[in-house]
Amino acid sequence: MSKQPVHRWAVLIAAMAVMLCTGTIYTFSVLSGPLSEVHHWNLPTLVLAYSVNSAIAPIPQILGGMWVDRGGAKWLVLIGGAGYGIGWILSGMSNSLVMFFISYGVITGLAQGFAYAGCLQNTIRLFPDRSGLASGLVTCANGAATVISAPIAAALVSSHGPGTAMVVLGSCFAVIGLGAFVFAQPAPVGYTPPGWTPPQRAGSPADGLNWRRMISTRAFWTIFFMFVCGAFSGLMIAGNASQIGQGMFALNAATAALFVSLYSASNATGRLILGLVSDRLGYAKSTIVIFVFVALSLTELILLKGQVVGFAIGIAGLGLCFGGVMAVFPPLVMSNFGAKHQGVNYGITFAAYSTSAIISPRIAASIGGSHDGDYSIAFLVAIGAAIVGIFLATTLVKSTPPIQRDAERLASETKNQGAVK
């Protein structure tokens, strides 16, 4: 056990600050329309930059998780936090789609992933006595960021244009990243808070399945495609919320930005509420609940098209569900494949999110653009994805987790060897 003094609350606050910055990725719908108009860029093509940003997330998540394991969390906070700000600055200065794709899609995407790994995985290790609290606060900061940033971004776009808005916000993000680096501190190996005694557990738990064994199981592919379906509607709304509000519900740009904030607030709330519910209900069963409410919320948006109250209810419901997806799938992976290799295992599973990020926002933008701002057909596609998710989740509920089967197999082999002796 390390005797190094650890200021874990300072680390937590620094992590939340960086995650507040990186969570502004969900303000893209506030910026994409004005960027398209100013530079005369095709909107569906421009939205692809958002998809690229999300699609590369597993790379820094896996590499970042390995780096955290080796005590490099402090440098990940710097690279992720400051790098995210630099990516926004370069995006605001971009005069071509290629440069925008590189700066916003690649640089910002990589920085965001490194920051997420350095902040979340390290902070949880500093709170073994309150890991749920630490995880909830860090991820909620990420999810709630748009509540603050969307109206600020909309105001800056209105007064100075989208390019300047991105440069100003990116400069703020870079400064915050540098400040967080000062307070960031890697979790010492075997760290326990003063006065806290780890709970004693009977027996030795199974080590868990590594990624090679994980991807050979049916459960992995079931969870993978569940994740694709679960993230589909959330990413569709995150990338096009402002355009949906203006096209289907006759909102002006400023009002639509407020609804983007509502979506973000619901997203953050869903991470807390559904994360707590899943501990009691079970992770696989919780995903069924999420998929059902996704389908209901999308149906409501179609039926109440043109009614602002309908937009508010639908977008709040989808935000809660998307937040629930982000909260429930990490423990769902751990409960099926064990904790030892969770960093790499979840990083690989997170490729499902990236798969959805590639197709979902672009499908919505293409359909909305070709139907005069009406996204009803896109919503029907998302409802179909939710129905597939319900089917997959139901099969998962009825199956035995691979880690449990592995433990039972090892116990049986040990018992048989004892009997032979």
Q: Any key phrases for this structure?
A:
single chain, 421 residues, mainly alpha, Growth Hormone, Chain: A, 17 helices
Oligomeric state of the chains present here: single chain
The CATH topology of the largest domain corresponds to: Growth Hormone, Chain: A
Supply the number of structural domains. Answer: 2
Global geometry: globular
Structural class assignment: mainly alpha
- Any idea what the CATH superfamily of the largest domain is called? MFS general substrate transporter like domains
Task: Please identify, by name, the CATH architecture of the largest domain.
Answer: Up-down Bundle
How many distinct helices?
17
Average pLDDT, all residues? 84
The helicity comes to over 70%
Number of beta strands: 0
Low-confidence stretches: 200-206
Question: If you compute it from the alpha carbons, what radius of gyration comes out, rounded to the nearest whole angstrom?
Answer: 22 Å
Q: Can you describe what's shown?
A:
The protein is mainly α and 421 residues long. It has 2 domains: 1-193, Up-down Bundle (Growth Hormone, Chain: A), CATH 1.20.1250.20; 210-409, Growth Hormone, Chain: A. The protein is built from 17 helices and no strands. Helix 2 crosses helix 10. The radius of gyration is 22 Å and the shape is globular. The chain starts with 7 loop residues before the first helix and ends with a helix. Residues 200-206 have low confidence and may be disordered.
